[in-house]
Amino acid sequence: MRNILILLVIFLSSCAHENIQKADNVCNIKGESIKLYTHGMYGGYPQSVLRDVVSSSVSCPNDNNEIKYYHIMLLSHPHLHITIIRPLGQGQKGYLSAKIFANGRFIIGERTYLSPFSRTQSPYSVKADIHRATMHLWHDLATHMAHKVSTKI
Q1: Per DSSP, what are the bridge partners of residue 111?
Q2: Is the separation of the CB atoms in 32 and 73 below 8 Å?
Q3: Which of 101, 67, 62, 61 is nearest to 81 (CA)?
Q4: pLDDT value at residue 27
Q5: Residue 21, pLDDT above cutoff 60
Q6: For the chain, first and last CA: distance in Å?
Q7: Are the C-beta atoms of residues 86 and 118 closer than 8 Å to each other?
Q8: Is residue 15 predicted with pLDDT exceeding 60?
Q9: What is the 3-state secondary structure (H, E, C) of 51-78?
Q10: How far apart are CA 153 and CA 22, in angstroms?
Q11: Nearest partner of 81 among 35, 41, 115, 113, judged by Cα
Q12: Are 39 and 79 spatial neighbours (Cβ–Cβ below 8 Å)?
């Protein structure tokens, strides 16, 4: 019994250690980037495949307002969490969630169902869904921060 407990502790600590190291830097704008954490499952594919798809599909801030507020937000050490859930089986609806946290607090997020095309294909078919969700996320963040600034004036 004691050996089982020791193995369980080792397994759980290795899982926690592995999750800590699974962050990618994305949206490198003028030498500054945001940490990306990928969560979820995609129809039985390995987590490494999902992580590669997500990190290569994230949209970054691209207009002047989005970039301006992105740099302001970077002062609070933000991180982006993207979760994709696509259950096994044809016709199962899945979803995508993109959230930004800073200083341990939720800032803003987007959640959407996966497109019908991505529900029946490999994880690479969800690239457009990830791009669209993160594009909306940056736009909403810039709008939200601009509103906060204008109400303080």
Answers
A1: 97
A2: no
A3: 101
A4: 92
A5: no
A6: 65
A7: yes
A8: no
A9: HHHHHHHCCCCCCHHHHHHHHHHHCCCE
A10: 40
A11: 35
A12: no
pLDDT of residue 24 exceeding 70, the answer is: yes
The residue type at 46: P
pLDDT tens column, 27-46: 998 888 999 999 999 888 88
Structure tokens at 12: 């759980």
Instruction: Check: CB of residue 142 under 8 Å from CB of residue 72.
Output: no
Under 8 Å between Cβ of 26 and 36: yes
Give me the helix-helix angle, 127-152 and 47-57, nearest 10°.
50
- Tracing tokens 């991505």 back to the chain, one arrives at 118
Q: Which segments of the chain are extended strands (E)?
A: 23-29, 32-42, 78-86, 95-102, 105-113
Say how far apart CA 72 and CA 49 lie, in whole Å. Answer: 32
Q: Is the pTM value of this prediction over 0.85?
A: no
Q: What is the pLDDT of residues 125-149, one digit of tens each?
A: 899 999 999 999 999 999 988 887 7
